[in-house]
Amino acid sequence: MQDEPDPPRKFYGFKPTEFERANAVPPESPSASTQPVTPTPDPGIAPAPNQKIDLYELIRAGATPPPQPGSTPLPPPTNEVHDILRENRRRDLAAGWYELGPLDDSKRRKRILHYWLAMLLINAPLGCAAAAFGPGDAIPFVCSIAAMGMLSAWLTWQTFFLRTHY
User: N or C of the chain: less Cβ packing under 10 Å?
Assistant: First the structure.
């Protein structure tokens, strides 16, 4: 049987290193490119005066705002994505998507009414049982009080802490 011919040779290379630019690069200002920046030496720590430090002077120095460094910052560059987002926001505002109106509170009020009814229906019979047994019969008395506490805590947790969507 004859050997199969070799496949054609593949040539590998690097991907292009430039990305597609959405916006043109702003030209540099001529003053920044023509004047080289010369670093100045660090002045070091300034010597302290030979007098006592006044507390009121420190308070006055802390209350004054520091000088603003440099000039005002340039606004961030914008591109067409910002324009699209502004247009979407304008359209949503016109459609009234951000206006909530009065919220319906009937579910929350109904849930609280059911909570108090359940507390009454659970704790009244258990409290009557605890009073009937009295502290003389320790096990049923303690179990009734424990059941009241456990069921009340569980019901409170279920009503007010787990159901947060009203």
Answer: N
pLDDT per residue over 65-89, tens digit each?
876 776 666 777 788 899 999 999 9
- Alpha-carbon torsion, ordered 136, 140, 143, 145, to 10 deg: -50
Report residue 43: phi and psi, to 5°.
-70, -15
Compute the distance between CA of residue 126 and CA of residue 146 in angstroms, rounded to an integer: 10
Indicate the number of domains in the chain: 1
pLDDT score of 166: 45
Whole-angstrom CA distances from 93 to 81, 86, 87, 90, 103 are: 18, 11, 10, 5, 19
Q: How many CB atoms lie within 10 A of CB 133?
A: 17
Q: Does 39 map to a domain?
A: no
Cα Rg of the chain (Å, integer)? 39
Largest Cα–Cα distance in the chain? 104
Q: Which parts of the chain register pLDDT below 70?
A: 1, 29-37, 48-49, 67, 70-73, 163-166
124 lies in some domain: yes
